[in-house]
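Regression test case RT-17, inverse folding.

Input:
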């Protein structure tokens, strides 16, 4: 998707992908990631996700990356936070204590930006992108992460002919194709998810599952 697509979605407040509640898989499986408290977690394409607050409360500094300044501003405003802003390369950095969000293009990140990252939380990044962009995204993410980095990845899968994303359908075969050359991959769980996604059901989806994986970079 083009940057203009996401800017327009936020400008029109068409953000059905945003969840107010903390994701169940995050709460259930984060402890299995075995990341020591105090280690920085990268949240790519973070929007204004409240999952970042949950991770912060568990003791993990956050590095978010988000294209839309509307989303970044909303995250801090909604949570009564008053960040300082400054320029960091091509990014506008919003920072308060252990929360730092880089406003700008994920693909402009460099390894120096993520040198202190040891964890990644991807709930709605990979599935937000069409197939060719997913390949580019995964390749770039791999280039950014130090060896040993652990990632909790959450995906959705549905009959792809039933709907044009986002969110896009990403199955285990694709997860392995994108990441297995650089990560060990552990499949945590898969559950039925259509009953919790009425908006996707209304778009014609008849079957939907949600899966969680642990990836560790080799």
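Golden output:
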């Amino acid at each position: 998707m083009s940057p203009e697509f996401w800017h327009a979605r936020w400008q029109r407040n068409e953000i059905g992908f945003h969840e107010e509640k903390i994701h169940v898989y995050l709460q259930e499986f984060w402890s299995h990631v075995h990341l020591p408290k105090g280690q920085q977690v990268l949240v790519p394409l973070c929007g204004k996700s409240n999952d970042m607050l949950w991770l912060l409360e568990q003791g993990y500094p956050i590095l978010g990356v988000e294209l839309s300044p509307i989303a970044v501003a909303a995250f801090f405003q909604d949570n009564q936070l008053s960040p300082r802003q400054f320029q960091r390369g091509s990014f506008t950095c919003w920072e308060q204590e252990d929360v730092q969000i880089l406003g700008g293009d994920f693909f402009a990140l460099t390894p120096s930006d993520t040198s202190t990252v040891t964890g990644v939380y991807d709930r709605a990044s990979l599935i937000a992108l069409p197939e060719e962009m997913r390949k580019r995204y995964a390749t770039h993410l791999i280039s950014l992460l130090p060896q040993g980095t652990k990632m909790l990845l959450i995906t959705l899968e549905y009959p792809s002919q039933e709907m044009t994303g986002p969110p896009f359908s990403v199955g285990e075969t694709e997860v392995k194709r994108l990441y297995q050359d650089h990560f060990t991959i552990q499949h945590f769980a898969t559950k039925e998810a259509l009953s919790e996604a009425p908006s996707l059901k209304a778009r014609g989806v008849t079957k939907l599952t949600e899966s969680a994986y642990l990836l560790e970079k080799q």
